[in-house]
Amino acid sequence: MSQTTPLANNVKFVKTETEVPLTLPVKAIDEKGQVVDKHVACERPLTVYLNWRPIVTLMTLGAKPESLTLGYLKNQGFISDLTLLESVIVDWDVSSAVVITKETSDDIEAKLAEKTVTSGCGQGTVYGGLMQGVDDIQLPTPSIKQSIIYQLLKNISAYNDTYKNAGAVHGCGICQQDEILAFVEDVGRHNAVDTLAGDMWLNQQAGADKIFYTTGRLTSEMVIKVAKMGIPLLLSRSGVTQMGLELAQQLGITLIARAKGKHFLVYHGAETIEFDVL
C-alpha cells in the first residue's frame, strides 16, 4: 500500500504506509545494577537513487526521508533545477528513496568517481559536486545582538526531543533572530542539514535573514552546505575545524561556536555582532 501526496512546487512523492519509529524502548542496567526502561535512537539505511541509478546509502533516523534525499542530491551537485523534478518515491520496505527528474545528469559518473571520505558522522562521504558553485556564492552581511544569541540558545533547548529521549543524535535548526522556524534531528549532522536544505529548496525559502544552528562541529562540509542555503550566520554548540574556519572566512560567514548558556566564541565575523550584554 502506498500514498501519493503533492509536495511544494507540484513535486509528487509516493510513500509506503509503513511508518518508521524514531526511537525504540529497551531495557538497560544502571550503575546500581537496577533494570531501567530507556529508549534508543533508531538507525536505518536509506539507499538514494536518482532516476533509478543508485547514488549512496545514508544511515538515518528516517524522520523526513523526502527532504533528506532532495537536500543530499542538491548539496552534492547531482540536481539543481526544481522545475524539472517529478517525484520522490520512498519505500521503507526496501529502505530506498528514488528521485525522478527530467534534469540531465551526463556527468554523474565523473561526480561519483570523485569521492572523499569525510569527518562527518552518519554520512562520511561527499562527491565532486559538493564544491560546485561555491566560488559564485555571495552572502549578505548578517547582524545580530548578543542578547538575541542568548535568547535563541534558551529557546532551542525546548527542541531536541529525540536527543532528550534517547541521545545519539544531532540536531539542526533554521532560525530567524530568536525564533526557531524548523528543527530536524538525525543520527548524523549532515543528514540533518541536508533535510533542512531540502525543505528550504522545495519551498523556495530565502536564507539571507536566517541563522543556522547545529549541535555538531563546524567542518568544511557543514560550512559549504550552509553557504549553499544562502545563510550567512552559523551557530554551533560544538567546535570548529581549520578548514571550516578558512571557508567561513572566504565566504563571509559569521562563525559562532561552543555556544551554550551564556558562553560562545566568535571565530569569524565579530564585527557583525552587537555586544549588548555586559
From TrEMBL:
Pfam families: FdhD-NarQ (PF02634). This is Sulfur carrier protein FdhD. Keywords: Cytoplasm, Molybdenum cofactor biosynthesis. Belongs to the FdhD family. InterPro entries: Cytidine_deaminase-like, FdhD. The active site is at residue 121. Coiled coil: none annotated. It is found in: Cytoplasm. It comes from the Bacteria. The keyword Cytoplasm applies. Required for formate dehydrogenase (FDH) activity. Acts as a sulfur carrier protein that transfers sulfur from IscS to the molybdenum cofactor prior to its insertion into FDH.
